Amino acid sequence: MSPKPLNALKEAISNRVIVELKGGREFRGTLDGYDIHMNLVLKEAEELQNGEVVGKVETTIVRGDNVIYISP
Amino acid sequence: MSPKPLNALKEAISNRVIVELKGGREFRGTLDGYDIHMNLVLKEAEELQNGEVVGKVETTIVRGDNVIYISP
Amino acid sequence: MSPKPLNALKEAISNRVIVELKGGREFRGTLDGYDIHMNLVLKEAEELQNGEVVGKVETTIVRGDNVIYISP
Amino acid sequence: MSPKPLNALKEAISNRVIVELKGGREFRGTLDGYDIHMNLVLKEAEELQNGEVVGKVETTIVRGDNVIYISP
Amino acid sequence: MSPKPLNALKEAISNRVIVELKGGREFRGTLDGYDIHMNLVLKEAEELQNGEVVGKVETTIVRGDNVIYISP
Amino acid sequence: MSPKPLNALKEAISNRVIVELKGGREFRGTLDGYDIHMNLVLKEAEELQNGEVVGKVETTIVRGDNVIYISP
Amino acid sequence: MSPKPLNALKEAISNRVIVELKGGREFRGTLDGYDIHMNLVLKEAEELQNGEVVGKVETTIVRGDNVIYISP
Fold first, then answer.
1. Model-wide pTM > 0.90
2. Torsion region of B51: left, alpha or beta (phi above 0 gives left; psi -120 to 50 gives alpha)
């Protein structure tokens, strides 16, 4: 069977991912959790705006409706 | 099991959190409650706009659909 | 147990609250009712736009999806 | 018990109300009906844009997601 | 009992209606059908943009989330 | 009984339709399928932007929330 | 029976597809999975912005609400 999007997220757990958000925002971090809304928990994450690093956080919980795509 | 986003919020209860909202708004306060929509209750919170403190409130109830991310 | 956002609203009933809405709009009034969508009933409310009072109403019913936050 | 928003709408039936909509639009008319989405039926209504009357209608059915607030 | 918005639509079936849409668009046509989302079927409809007629169609199916109001 | 919007779509199957989308986009093609969200399958479709043909596709699946109206 | 949009996606599995997203973004890749929200998994995908290739990824998970259309 073809992998469903949530299975692809499951496989990405503990891996570094790029999370592109609406509004020119991006996180690069370790995927630590997700749910069916694509709410995400990222660890050791860098936040970028328009391509530049603007901050680092140990943990961040992203609300799923902001997500454009997640690339493992 | 990997922590789901709501579990990560549960663990953040009583801790100081940064809440980034749509529209350049931010709150920094103590997480006092949440629900499945990511509606939040913050205590002793500072409100920031584009990085500058614009107000302080004892309690604020944030509607979840405004949230971009929450960093404990 | 940590107070959930709707409990925090319940406790704010009959108190003066600040209601920040999307689009630079704000109400200051007495919270008279709410529901799970954060639809609100405010009494003796002042409406502000970008910080200036633009009107006063005895009662207003605010549709919840406009709410950013409510501060008792 | 505190009045819920829909009860407040029920009490406003047959009264003149101001309905503020997103996008600078406003209706002033007699509330003739509503439902749980805040879809509204207004009678003998004036439509205003940015404060100026731009039209009058005998009946109008407003889709609830456009509503910011309703003031009886 | 006060007419609910969908009843008001039911009564407007086969009548000419003005349908104001988001984005400065408007249809004037004969209401031929609707559903609970306010999806509409219009017959012999004129499309207007910012007040000017830009086209005529025999039938059009409008997705409800674009509707601001419907005036019979 | 008045035709409901989805029935009107059913009758349009295999016919050429104009699909107006948000953001100045338009498709003209043969309606090959739809569902309750107004997700659409179009065959032999031309894509237009602001009235000019910008591409042709054999098949395209349009997500319903982009649809303004469909004219058979 | 006419193919429903999700069936059309099913048939596109393992094929190269063009995915047009809101905000001038586009992916071209191999469709590896989807769900009822039109969340997508793409493999060996190129990302384009306003028509220019801006990146390549082995796998990407696109949140369905960003999708305008998918062309196999």
1. yes
2. left
